[in-house]
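Narrative progress, year one. The postdoctoral researcher (J.K.) led the effort to move from monomer predictions toward full complexes, under supervision of the PI. The following entry was the first complex the group processed end to end, covering 594 residues in total.
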Amino acid sequence: MRFNVQENSGKSDGLCPEESRRAEPFEPMRTPSPVAATSILKLVNIRFSYRGGDPILRDVTLTVTSQERVGIIGPSGCGKSTLAKVITGFEMPQEGQVLVDGQVLPRRGFRPVQLIYQHPELAVNPHWQLGKTLAEAGDFPQKMLNKMGIDPAWLSRWPNELSGGELQRFCVARALGAQTRFVVADEITTMLDVITQAQLWEFLLDVCNRHNKGLIIITHDHNLARRICTRISHFDDLSSATDITGRNATAHTPLHELRE
Amino acid sequence: MTTHTHPHTHQHYLHIHEHDLASTHHHPATYPLLSIRDLSVRFTQYERGLRQITLETVSSLSLSVDVGEVLAVVGASGSGKSLLAQAILGILPANARISGKMTFQGQELTAQRQQQLRGREIAFVPQSVDYLDPLMKVGRQVQGVRNSRQQQQAVFERYGLAPFVAHLYPFQLSGGMLRRVLIACAVIEDVSLIIADEPTPGLSHAAALEVMRHFRELADEGRAVLIITHDINLAFDVADSIAVFYAGTIFEHAPMADFIAGPDALRHPYTKALYRALPKHGFKPHPGTQPYAGALPAGCLYAKRCEWSTPECEQGTIEMRALRGGMVRCIHAL
Ligand code: SF4
């Protein structure tokens, strides 16, 4: 097994013990409070390859509840982004299943597992003003847009008139419709400055906590994962992973090694 | 970890002090290797409906870097940082208009000098591997036209590239190897300034750190290295000083020690907010967004988000000034 799973200290603030001891002030993350019923996302023995190539994912099994924030850490090229597409139903695995509350993902209509990408500029229709992009995904109360830092004037702008950080707010908001049970965030703040990064995560974590939506956070940033995840999965090569659930994990890598 | 003289020596404080003085011609001997004063880059564009607009993508940017130093310019992607690299190298797109003053080795960096110095004195390590010729073996590309086979072999050895790699094409190399090839291309000549634009895309943290350490070594051997990156964590590991890039300008240029010491040691309110927003230092989001290049406000570019802002902040240009061993573009910073 080439990955290790680390329960992230089990504390509600999502900090590792070493950080918790430090005297500096921080704002503790709220614990998930069940509002909507708890959902369970299961990946069962997923095998995936592109067009008959070598398998990118082999026997991947993963279980996440909607009260969890699971971090998946690894370098690019290890199959993380492919995993994200399979979990959200954008790619169909050759073997295995993705189940939400025991149901396979619907083929059409609203996706209960939403994907947010690293590059928002590639994820919005360049020929639509942003208000239209947002309206397509549902109704968003003004209050929510304010909290998200979306300036009402941006709704009549075109995508090429906004920065990556501004566009990403639309993509995050759009993924958080009422029917969303899980959100897969694939390196969503990697290219942003750290203030925008903290803004987006504050909002995303808050909505997910309050509305009981599960989060799978794909990142290469250990500090970020340690700050926000309830559980961290660390691997170099997903294709050789047999289980990334953490339930059966026996090998616990010390956090200081994880940080190397 | 390779050994190097890491950051926090007094000498670096001095260099940052000087960059404000670079244009005053009193002490030629103390010129930093590269000095930039009030650099602006503007583009003229036609909007929908053919209205002509001017985008100021770099505005009144000042900074300096000297031999022996690694300077990291840190800012969000898409905020115009790459244009800074292109402006120094003289490879901006043809429709760009440039103003301000750049000096290299104390003399003005004109377009003609840029052309003479590029590749010989000033080297570029690009973000994109598209800068490599896909149809040429990497050994020949690194060797170039001016260097010998022996030099190519020496630089390969230095960057842990096995001799057989010279006979491969770019597509046959891993991401990490390609990065080392790009560095090898840059340093095969004995350059004195290296400009690296996002030199570690898509690498794991360990591989990225390895690349950054190569830059550290190059600086320790007596070159100046300017690294442009969105990843402040990488800067922390190797840089002597960090210049904070925001909406096309530099708000603060401070020694690394100040970024380690924290908000009290830092000068600009944005830099302080940046520090507090780091996942390992509180993850505290400061409200607001960076202004868009087509809609820059008059006065301070940070005024809308700034808790210290006063009416003066929104009038006239805010000058870069020396403060406590660093540089800051804020009238109220103490
Ligand atoms: S110049 Fe004024 S608005 Fe700008 S950062 Fe300083 S105090 Fe804030």
